[in-house]
Design brief:
heterodimer; A: 244 residues; mainly beta; Protocatechuate 3,4-Dioxygenase, subunit A; 4% helix; B: 208 residues; four-stranded antiparallel beta sheet; 3 helices; 11 strands; 6% helix
C-alpha cells in the first residue's frame, strides 16, 4: 500500500534531563531499576499514535477537586487554580490531550490504604482529577494546595508539596508522568525524589510559578504550570510500497 | 522541517509514586464517586473485530518480590494492524476497538491482566513489518521513568525471525523475555507474560 502522510517521528528523548533508573538516595529504585541498557530501534506506528479520549469521558466536576468528592462541604485548605498549556518541544500546542492529576490533601495526607502519615483525612477531598486540553493546548483545574508530608525512605525524609501529572500526547512515545512543585518551597531542594533529576535547570521546569494575575478575588490563588512533551518532525512517515 | 528556534525541553519524569492508583484508577483505589469507571478498564466492545485473547503476567522486582503498586498500560493495533485514534497512516481502524487498557498489579502476586483482541501485523516508521505485538508501559513507585516494553505471541515464531526488534537482540535469552507463553486449556487463548524489572531474566525495555 502507498503511505499516507501523517506526522513524523519524535525527536530523541534527552535522557540527561530525566532521572536514571538507579538512584540510591531514592531507595525503592534499588530493586526496581533495570540493569541492562534500554534498546533503541527506531519508532513504530504504535509509538507515533496514541489513544484518543474524547470529552464524552469527562463529567462536569472531573477538573474540580474542590467539588468532585463533596460529602457535604468544601475541603479545608488554601484554594488554588492551576493552569497552563500543554506544548511540544517546538512550542506547538498539544490539543485534545488527556491530563490526569492526583495529590495529598491540605494536611499532606493521601486517601489511600497504604498511607502511613498521621495527618487527618479530609471528608470532602478525594485527591484526583482530569481534564482534556483545549484547541490551544490550555488546561485548568481547581484544588487545594497539597501539604508536604513525611515518607519512609531515609529517616525523616519529607516530600515538598506537589501534584502528580499523567500526560498523554499524540504519540505513545510522549507518554509521561511527572510532578509539579510550588515556587518558593524550600523542601524542593532537600527531596531525594526531586534530586533523582541530574539537571538543576530541568528541575526548575517542574516548579509552578505563583500567578497573581490569575488569582480569583476573595476566592483562590493561582499557579501557572506549562507542560512540555516530546516534539516531532513535521515530515511524514510513509510506508514503503509493498514489495520494496 | 519545522524551525527549532523556539526549542523547549520535555519535562523531566518523576516517579508515579505509591499512590498512582488514586490518579489513574481512583475507583480501584477506593475513591468512589469522582467518575463512574476507571479509564481503560471497560474490556473489549462486543462489536470489535478479531479473536479475543487474555494477557496476564506478574511484575517482579530485582529481589524476586512481586511489585504490587504498579499500573501497566497496554496500547496496541486492532486485528487488522491499524492503531485506533485516526492518525495511523494505514487506515481508520476498527471504530469499536480502543486499543488501550490499564491494569493495576495490586494482587498478592503483583499480577496485571488484560482482555483484548489479537493484534495484526504493524509497521515501523520506516515501513518494516513487525510481528503482532502489544506495547506495554509500566509505572510504579521506584520507577523513575515509565518503562516501555512489548509482548509478542508464541505462535508467530516465523515472523519473529524478521521482526525489527526481536531480530536485533543478539542474546536469544533476552529476546525470549518479550514472547509470552500460552497457558493450557481450551477456548479463548490466555497468554502469560511475566515482567522482571531487574536481574535474572530481566525483561527487555525500549528507548523509544
Amino acid at each position: 500500500m502507498s503511505g499516507t502522510a501523517t506526522k513524523g517521528t519524535f525527536y530523541r528523548r534527552d535522557r540527561d534531563r530525566h532521572p536514571p533508573a538507579l538512584t540510591p538516595q531514592y531507595r525503592t529504585s534499588t530493586l526496581r531499576s533495570p540493569r541492562f541498557a534500554p534498546i533503541s530501534l527506531g519508532q513504530s506506528a504504535g509509538d507515533l499514535t496514541a489513544p484518543v479520549f474524547g470529552h464524552s469521558i469527562l463529567g462536569p466536576r472531573d477538573d474540580d477537586l474542590l467539588k468532585n468528592y463533596d460529602h457535604g462541604g468544601d475541603p479545608i485548605g488554601q484554594r488554588i487554580v492551576v493552569s497552563g498549556r500543554l506544548l511540544d518541544e517546538d512550542a506547538r500546542p498539544v490539543p485534545g490531550a488527556l491530563i490526569e492529576f492526583w495529590q495529598a490533601n491540605a494536611a499532606g495526607r493521601y486517601r489511600h490504604k497504604r498511607e502511613g502519615y498521621v495527618a487527618p483525612l479530609d471528608p470532602n477531598f478525594g485527591g484526583c482529577g482530569r481534564c482534556i486540553t483545549d484547541d490551544e493546548g490550555r488546561y485548568s483545574f481547581r484544588t487545594v494546595k497539597p501539604g508536604p508530608y513525611p515518607w519512609p525512605n531515609r529517616l525523616n525524609d519529607w516530600r515538598p508539596a506537589h501534584i502528580h501529572f499523567s500526560l498523554f500526547g499524540h504519540g505513545f512515545a510522549q507518554r509521561l508522568i511527572t510532578q509539579m512543585y510550588f515556587e518558593g518551597d524550600p523542601l524542593i531542594w532537600a527531596c531525594p525524589i526531586v534530586a533523582t533529576i541530574p539537571d538543576r535547570e530541568a528541575i526548575e521546569t517542574l516548579i509552578a510559578k505563583l500567578d497573581l494575575r490569575g488569582a480569583l478575588h476573595m476566592d483562590a490563588l493561582a499557579y501557572r504550570f506549562d507542560i512540555v512533551l516530546r516534539g516531532r518532525r513535521s515530515t511524514p512517515f510513509e510506508n514503503k510500497k509493498e514489495g520494496n | 522541517m519545522a524551525s527549532r528556534d523556539e526549542t523547549l525541553h520535555e519535562l523531566p519524569s518523576q516517579t508515579a509514586g505509591p499512590y498512582v492508583h488514586i490518579g489513574l484508577m481512583p475507583n480501584f483505589s477506593g475513591i468512589a464517586g469522582c467518575w463512574p469507571q476507571d479509564l481503560g478498564t471497560g474490556g473489549v466492545d462486543k462489536r470489535a473485530k478479531g479473536e479475543r485473547i487474555g494477557v496476564v503476567g506478574r511484575l517482579i522486582d530485582g529481589g524476586g518480590a512481586p511489585v504490587r503498586d504498579a499500573v501497566v498500560e497496554l496500547w496496541q493495533a486492532d486485528s487488522d494492524g491499524v492503531y485506533p485514534g485516526g492518525t495511523d497512516p494505514r487506515g481508520k481502524g476498527d471504530p469499536h476497538f480502543s486499543g488501550f487498557a490499564r491494569s493495576a498489579t495490586d494482587t498478592p502476586d503483583g499480577e496485571f491482566r488484560f482482555e483484548t483482541v489479537r493484534p495484526g501485523v504493524v509497521h515501523m516508521a520506516d515501513g518494516r513489518a513487525c510481528a503482532p505485538h502489544a506495547d506495554l508501559w509500566i509505572v510504579a513507585r521506584g520507577i523513575n521513568l515509565g518503562l516501555h516494553t512489548r509482548v509478542y505471541f508464541p505462535e508467530d515464531s516465523a515472523a519473529h525471525a524478521t521482526d525489527p526488534l526481536l531480530a536485533r537482540i543478539e542474546d536469544p535469552r533476552r529476546a525470549a523475555t518479550l514472547v509470552a507463553t500460552r497457558e493450557g486449556g481450551e477456548g479463548r487463548p490466555l497468554y502469560r507474560f511475566d515482567v522482571r524489572l531487574q536481574g535474572d531474566g530481566e525483561t527487555v525495555f525500549l528507548d523509544v
